[in-house]
Input
Amino acid sequence: MNPHSKAPGAAPAGSTDGVAPVKPSPETLPLDPKAELALQISEARFRKLLQEIPLVAVQGYGEDGTTHYWNQASAELYGYSADEALGRSLLDTIIPAEMQDGVRQAMREMFATGVPIPAGELSLRRKDGSRVSVFSSHAYVKVPGRPAELFCVDVDLTERKQAEARLQLAANVFSHAREGITITDVQGNIVDVNDAFTRITGYSRDEALGQNPRMLKSGQQAASFMPTCGALFSNKVTGVASYGTDTKAAIFTPLF
Output
């Protein structure tokens, strides 16, 4: 046998124990000291900035869900201090039981593909067990020489939800009131009317929009009777108004 020939199945030259050497990828190469220092300074500045942002809760998680970062707004939103949250899985803190399987799957896919979890509205769990609605955005962060992380940026939707509920209540009152209601702009022009108004007056909504409440004047009152917009904001005015060919008693009461 030629002493320089290779036996079948022999490892390539330069290999050890039959395993070919693997060329390091850029992500696994260690950073030089200057680059590492610059990275540490940049990361410290970044985390300090996020720590001091009010009303925006930011958390950082590892691939297994362990909490690596927890800013002050997160503590105020969810009730866990940084000391309580750091080192614990997000599944044990803010993720409700019914969402945990879905969160695990979404995180596995994100760390496998590098594609962030889509942003959306979520109902998460506070320390006291209560729920809080948030709009949650997600970022996949991979720094050379460091494990990948998931950063979540959560905005509390509580006040918006309460405002929406108040608006819905006002809309229900407007729609279902037995009294005719008109809404005017500051010039006194009608911008909306409810169903009771059209039923009582006979004017359709389209006929009323853009008109002045003086359209209801019956002619049985003095010319100065129909109140101005300013008068409506300070008085309850009672009189007779015209609805087509009919006349009825009317009370004009400002609501604001």
Q: What stands out?
A: Confidence is low (pLDDT under 50) at residues 1-29, 228-245. The radius of gyration is 34 Å. Residues 29 and 145 are 7 Å apart (CA to CA). Strands lie at 56-61, 67-70, 120-125, 131-141, 149-156, 182-184, 190-193, 237-243, 246-252.
